[in-house]
Amino acid sequence: MKKSVFARSFAILLISCIFCSILSECGSSSKSSSSEPPVYSPLRVLVPEAPGSDTLGSSPLTLDVSNITQGYFAAQSDSADLVTSLQITAPTGVLYSYFIEPGENAVIPFTEGDGDYTVVGYQQIQGDQYAALYSETLTVELENEFLPFLYPNQYVNFSPDSEASKLALSMVSEDTSDIDALKQIYNYVVNNLSYDYDKAETVETGYLPDVDETLSTKTGICFDYAALTTAMLRSCDIPCKLQIGYTGDIKHAWIDVYIRSKGWVTNAVSFNGDSWSLMDPTFDSSADSDDSEAIQDYIGNADNYTVQFTR
What we know:
alpha+beta, disordered N terminus, Immunoglobulin-like, four-stranded antiparallel beta sheet, about 20% helix, C8orf32 fold, about 300 residues, seven-stranded mixed beta sheet, about 30% strand
């Protein structure tokens, strides 16, 4: 792509930041109905595991599928110098691509929920030439449909030790209302980060955000803003989807957030590369209020947005 395309591709970010109330219960979480997110007390950052009890493939790219009911699997590369890749065909037919650097691991989410996922592994031969290693079909039945949007993954990468997670949890407690959590996390991100126009002009295809680097430098492109906000919300047990797609012919990234009284809410906060706006419907937390029309008036026509990938 030309630099102008990159600038255009990353210059606009739509962030939807209406999120769910955080409920509490005694003790640790128990298995919950898939119709609502799981409840954790105390709040905790979910950590993917790769115990090796169920694996597929072989060197140089092994897949640990021990915890697919939790909404993810782990890809583990033992290649010394060559990139490996996964091409995943989701139940809807959407093709997802993931690249794993030599010797690295990656958490891959099942963002389309239950169904059959076809996973094809590849190893780099040279340059952009790859050879197929294997093809497997994974039949996924999630314990809870919200889990893929609470765990970290390759695109939204965080852990309990991440500065982004620590910061989010320092802002939010079990008694914090959803609106107060929204104000604190949203205001921190937009008031402390600056948009990096030089980076937007030069970013390469395949770029992955580093949420702690974004916090440290306090600069980033729209993808960085989206990933950081998603990581902070997920760290507080708030389900979020990092959406990548288009509005018209301009590439966008935006966040959909689950609110218990309304379901998934999209496109509620807008960033145009220069300024941010946070609309009043975002602050409506009343479960019995008749605000659906106001929300729809704000987010506009959903037909204007085309999702390519959910991460």
